[in-house]
């Protein structure tokens, strides 16, 4: 728990680190793909005055434009520079969701994600310092610890330390707590479609390791990143991808790349999520303060 609370102290630095580290990024192509706008900060709907030194971060500190705070990130992953001597540019593309979306259920009491903070009605989350974020804060998503996983696949249980949502896949292998296969769900819809303006660039390692990096750029700044390690067969993520839905007027949605669906923490290796995203897509959580959070399939449409 000490490690988790110390780790959350740097959540506020996620987007700041993205801007700082991106100054050191070197693109072998000589230029970085850009987007139409940066990542807005927002005024926040928490009880703080915008103090970015608090932990977990308030909305302004996290750079989350939908004003509901940010996810607890146990390993404090940050966007890292791409080494041009190791990684060469490959495919580019844009991301969007495909298929159905499923509304997610929020806790009304008890601990927040990774045991940090507490939850109350409508998904309001109170951090360890008493700051309140919400409604529909992703730290208060509800995970099951018994029964079958989503779509009847595998089994849900809890970890040895009591963390919920530990998914055992159909092959009997334990993955990790807070798995999307064990998240409690509501109605499924075909109406929600999300699109994301930031442009993606994939970099492939030239050292034979099979490692890859995928950066999402907005106005030349890396706002979200996936890093696949070919040696350990794991992927970690950092940053926030900002998009919008197909409503009129459109609503803003965000996908935090440090969430359990996109960033390895423990257990069974999560594999090459960059490859998965350019294929059938990856199941992730997307959130909007007013509308809540939904389980969606994020897919990258890539071109050579």
Features:
single chain; 304 residues; mainly beta; 2 domains; 4 helices; 15 strands; 32% strand; globular; disordered N terminus
Compact description:
With 304 residues, the protein is mostly beta strands.
Structural overview:
The termini are far apart. The chain has helices spanning 2-8, 13-22, 59-62, 273-277, and strands spanning 87-104, 118-120, 124-126, 132-133, 155-157, 166-168, 185-189, 195-196, 199-205, 212-218, 221-229, 234-244, 252-256, 282-288, 292-303. A hairpin with an 8-residue loop joins strand 5 (155-157) and strand 6. The strands form three sheets. Strands 1, 7, 8, 9, 10, 11, 12, 13, 14 and 15 form a ten-stranded antiparallel sheet that branches. Strands 2-3-4 form a three-stranded antiparallel sheet, with no helix packed on it. Strands 5-6 form a two-stranded antiparallel ribbon. It folds into two domains: 2-99 and 191-303, no CATH class; 105-184, no CATH class. The protein has 304 residues and is mainly beta. The protein contains four helices and 15 strands. It is globular, with a radius of gyration of 18 Å.
